[in-house]
Amino acid sequence: EASQRAAGASWREKEGAVGEIGGVRSGREERRSHVSLTAAHVRSAAAAAAGMGDSGGSVVSVDVERISFGGKLCKAAASARLLLLVAVIVLLLPSADARRRPVHLRLYMHDIIGGPEQTAIHLIRNAGPPHKSLKGAYFGDTMAIDDLVTDGPGIDSGSVGRAQGTYMLSSQHEEVLVAAVTVALTDGPYSGSTFVIAGRVGIYDDKSELAIVGGTGQLRRAAGYVLWRMAKVVSEVYIVVELIVHMSVPANAAAPSNGSSLAIE
């Protein structure tokens, strides 16, 4: 009987030891799995940073291996490896931006709000409360435009496209308009392409900065900004707005034709 009790105790000890070994193995596999998942995320991030989704961009493949020491996962070494890879990704991000080609244009938008050559009309007028500082204007007043775009400030300058969209008096107190305008180019090196302008225009500011939030054709995925400036007051109903455009497009976008007066690069 004593022998049986001793054998039972020995068996329980072995069973406990097996359980501990199983727990260690389970924990080790869990940590390895965690590192493997982290590695997959790092590889995806590195590939995205290197390629930026362009069909012509190169993709850098980063391999994160399981790190073991003496049969056990070395967590410190794994953390160091991952930190190193994160640093590599950060360094890759500027190189992705460097694979963009700059585009600089100077355009003139002819905004005519009355008369036989009218290009802008009120969609909403006097619907909101009177503006606090603009006499005769009302909060929410909205204009739709289809303005001629030329390569010079004169009406007889070369026509290169149309500026189509809206601008709205969207502040009750400030003298600002919010504009959303698509510039459709019909002549010059980017004929058939468009870019989209969005932002605030200070009515009495010397110039305003608006964002370029996209484009099509040769200007697909355009990004940058526009300096919007009053160039000329022709009459009470006719103004000319200068648009100085600074944007960039992916380097593998179709190159423009040469010999245009639009480029100010």
TrEMBL record:
Cellular component annotations (GO), alphabetically ordered:
apoplast
Write down the superkingdom of origin.
Answer: Eukaryota
Gene3D superfamilies from the xrefs? Allene oxide cyclase-like
Cellular localisation? Secreted, Extracellular space, Apoplast
User: Example GO biological process term?
Assistant: phenylpropanoid biosynthetic process
Give the keywords, sorted.
Answer: Apoplast, Secreted
InterPro entries, per the entry: Allene_oxi_cyc_Dirigent, Dirigent
According to its UniProt entry, the function of this protein is described as: Dirigent proteins impart stereoselectivity on the phenoxy radical-coupling reaction, yielding optically active lignans from two molecules of coniferyl alcohol in the biosynthesis of lignans, flavonolignans, and alkaloids and thus plays a central role in plant secondary metabolism.
By sequence similarity, the record places it as follows: Belongs to the plant dirigent protein family.
Q: How does it assemble?
A: Homodimer.
Would you tell me the protein name for this molecule?
Answer: Dirigent protein
